[in-house]
Design goal:
This protein is α/β, with parallel strands linked by helices. Helix content is 55%, strand content 11%. It has a 6-stranded mixed sheet with strand order 3-2-1-4-5-6, with helices on both faces. Helix 5 links the parallel strand 5 and strand 6. Helix 1 runs antiparallel to helix 2, helix 4 runs parallel beside helix 5 and helix 9 runs parallel beside helix 11.
Length: 374
């Protein structure tokens, strides 16, 4: 492919606010510049692209092979003032003169969407200078195409001369997308008819990318598309599932079968949580039982589970009885005397211990008297 240094000049005048190209002339240019940048950098990785504006005559990005820089600055362009065609082309020519790769061919791509307010003689003079310097120029004439068609045609014809074909004029009438019209133009296709954007910007290929030119990108796009389709199918299936029971009036049998399945599953879960004493009910065949029998059986199982708290209450009462037995043992003076003898550092014959034991005996006698009176 051709090794080339290209500077793209975009029209950012106030005329770019018009909406005859979707959504505006300026945003339509941005899509077209993106297309051209990808075409130039993919056709030859060593090719360089620069970006400047024709209204405020600002060089936004110098010659680079990084398309990301071009796109980042491109999104910051806003409409401003009037287009200065001759001054903009002269500045673009100076940028190309100071390129690092002197073996690169030079090309200017200018978007013209505003009326050219310049003398025709000055335009022809500039065209002769560019021809002498061997600078090719491609002009995209859109928006005000009828007004500028004559002067731009003379400009390009002067640069090409009688036999030259390196410069092109592409006139695009108002339409939905500016970039679509450029796909098959010589600006994107190049002099040899080849394109760095997957052959006519991927026209005729899946996802708009030629797998031969960029197999990794084509594979990534294919995988991404398949994942998106699978995700959409899963979401669609999830939305359709709840609506299935109410789809038609003839689904009564399916409703009954689904309810029976849920009932059997609930019965099985309740049986799994039962104790060993419920072994006999587990052996019953649920499939042979009618719906009423299954409901009755479920109620029986739930009642069996309700009896468990009563069992726990009985166990607690047994614990209380056992505690009462312990209290009787603790009130036995002989038992306490034996315990005190085994404790280290305690003298059972001390006056304090005897007084405590005597008090306990007196309390015990009082309790017996009260019981006898009752």
């Amino acid at each position: 492919m051709v090794l080339e240094s290209t500077i793209i000049c975009i029209d950012n005048s106030q005329f770019m606010r018009n909406g005859d190209f979707n959504p505006t002339r300026l945003q339509a240019q941005q899509d077209a510049v993106n297309l051209i940048t990808q075409s130039k950098t993919r056709s030859n990785p060593e090719s360089n692209v620069a970006l400047m504006t024709l209204s405020d005559l600002s060089v936004l990005v110098g010659l680079t092979n990084d398309s990301g820089k071009i796109l980042a600055k491109l999104n910051q362009v806003t409409p401003n003032g009037c287009m200065k065609f001759i001054s903009g082309i002269k500045i673009a020519h100076l940028c190309l003169k100071h390129r690092q790769g002197k073996n690169h061919k030079t090309r200017i791509i200018a978007f013209v969407g505003s009326p050219i307010e310049a003398d025709e003689k000055e335009v022809i003079k500039l065209a002769k200078k560019l021809k002498k310097e061997k600078v090719n120029i491609d002009i995209v004439n859109f928006g005000e195409d009828e007004i500028n068609a004559d002067v731009l045609n003379k400009f390009v014809t002067t640069i090409n001369g009688k036999e030259g074909t390196g410069s092109h004029l592409v006139t695009i009438p108002p339409g939905p997308h500016l970039s679509d019209a450029l796909v098959s133009s010589p600006i994107v296709q190049g002099e040899d008819g080849g394109s760095g954007v997957g052959g006519s910007s991927g026209a005729g290929f899946e996802f708009g990318v030629n797998p031969d030119d960029d197999p990794e990108l084509a594979l990534a796009l294919r995988v991404s598309m398949e994942e998106q389709r699978a995700r959409q199918q899963a979401e669609g299936g999830a939305e359709e599932t709840p609506a299935t029971p109410a789809a038609g009036g003839g689904g009564g049998a399916e409703d009954e079968s689904s309810e029976e399945a849920l009932l059997q599953r609930a019965l099985a879960m309740s049986m799994d949580t039962g104790e060993a004493g419920s072994a006999a009910p587990k052996e019953r065949d649920l499939g042979s039982m009618t719906e009423e029998e299954q409901i009755a059986y479920a109620m029986q199982m739930s009642m069996a589970d309700a009896e468990k708290p009563e069992d726990s209450a009985k166990a607690e009462s047994m614990d209380v009885d056992e505690k009462e037995d312990y209290s009787e043992v603790m009130n036995d003076p002989a038992f306490l005397q034996s315990v005190l003898q085994n404790l280290p550092g305690v003298d059972p014959q001390s006056e304090a211990v005897r007084n405590a034991m005597g008090a306990m005996k007196d309390e015990k006698k009082d309790e017996k008297k009260k019981e006898d009176k009752k």
